[in-house]
Amino acid sequence: MRFEVVIIGGGAAGLMCAIEAGKRGRKVLLIEHNDEVGRKIIISGGGRCNFTNLHTTHENFLSRNPHFSKSALASYPPDEFISLVRKHNISYYEKKLGQLFCRESSKQIVEMLLKECRAANVRVETNCAVRGVSKTDEKDSGERFSLETSHGDFTCPNLVIATGGLSFAKVGATDFGFRIAKQFGMKIVETRPSLVPLEFQKSVSEGFKKLAGISLDVIAIAAANPFRENILFTHSGMSGPAILQASNYWNRENVIEFDLLPERDVEKLLYENRSRKILVSNFLDAFFPERFAEAFATSELKNLPLNQLTEKQVSEFASKLNSWKVNFAKTAGYDRAEVTLGGVDTNELSSKTMESKRQKGLYFIGEVVDVTGWLGGYNFQWAWASGFACGRSV
């Protein structure tokens, strides 16, 4: 069966692309290999879907070409998606830092997108596995793509890959999009898990295993990018919003620095309290949970009163609290990562249409592309924006 547009991947980007292309009168087929579309939408935001961020700019995204996302983001800003949410009477709220969530359920977003698909006459095929993609060149109809699927064979002049990255295999993530890109000679920027917990090196983990479950408000700094959020100690490392943000910029060569007492000059605090006989461990107890204070204070300092600390000890201890440097060994892997960093090289794509520069009629959108947002709704906004840009072009 022939369609004008076939979209592989029924996630956020694929659904948005299908809606926009369908609105323009295109005959559209959306293929999803799961038994329902939008699985990642449904589980996101603790089931309430952080569907966008009011403060979205291209500076909230990582890519080898940091300017690539500008065009799509400008063509479909957060207000556009918010208008769609309001049109469907979905109640939402701002949690913090511009992050918008559904008040009730993330399923409302999926239901909204499916309603829009139906209104645009988009055909949706779920439980449909794509077994192969090939390109033909017919004299009467020009270049076209042929798809062999578990639901039959389809052809189209415009093929959109919206299959996401490698994160969350439990919701069906695969490397399909990267394989298709390579099949057509396109370059892939090396991928790795991101927005993901980090695991300590063995030398560090032994001292902090007993801190699992403790949460602290800190500033985490990775590659000169500061994030003021909570960290959460786990049995093997750290999680929490600040760590997830920092993980976008982390690699094994870089340490992550933590200001454990933001907005406090610890050295000044120590000097102000030096006349007191309070122990270092008790000083820490005033700011941190007891378990953390016990583990953080060095054995030679914890039982010393502040008035016995040398100037060097004061300086070093203050520096440790305001600038604690931690080496991590690895991430917690794709199964616990919210996104995949890297992907189809943006130099291979048009920033206005998402079309491949190597293969006419082939498009890549959403997470499969080398554009990765910060935590807080930015990746959904990229999905909507890239899907919209592609949908109005195919």
CATH topology of the largest domain: FAD/NAD(P)-binding domain
Assembly category: single chain
Termini Cα gap? 18 Å
Helix content: 25-40%
Q: Strand order across the biggest sheet?
A: 18-17-14-15-16-13-19
Determine and state the CATH class of the largest domain: Alpha Beta
- Return the domain count: 2
Low-confidence stretches: none
Looking at the overall shape, the CATH architecture of the largest domain is 3-Layer(bba) Sandwich
Strand content: 25-35%
Mean pLDDT reading: 94
General shape: elongated
Rg from Cα: 25 Å
Number of helices: 13
The biggest beta sheet reads: 7 strands, antiparallel
CATH homologous superfamily annotation of the largest domain: FAD/NAD(P)-binding domain
Number of distinct beta strands:
22
Structure description:
This protein is α+β, with helices and mostly antiparallel strands and 394 residues long. It has two domains: 5-191 and 341-391, 3-Layer(bba) Sandwich (FAD/NAD(P)-binding domain), CATH 3.50.50; 198-331, Beta Barrel (Elongation Factor Tu (Ef-tu), domain 3), CATH 2.40.30.10. The protein is 29% helix and 26% strand. It has helices spanning 12-23, 39-43, 70-75, 78-87, 107-119, 176-183, 202-208, 241-247, 266-272, 280-285, 290-296, 311-322, 378-391; strands at 5-8, 28-31, 50-53, 61-62, 92-94, 99-102, 123-125, 130-138, 142-149, 152-156, 158-161, 188-194, 198-200, 215-222, 225-233, 237-239, 256-259, 324-326, 328-331, 339-344, 362-364, 372-373. The strands form six sheets. Strands 18-17-14-15-16-13-19 form a seven-stranded antiparallel β-sheet. The protein has a five-stranded parallel β-sheet with strand order 7-2-1-11-21, covered by helices on one side. α1 packs parallel to α5, α1 packs parallel to α13 (378-391) and α9 crosses α12. The longest helix is centred in the C-terminal third of the chain and has 14 residues, at 378-391. It is elongated, with a radius of gyration of 25 Å.
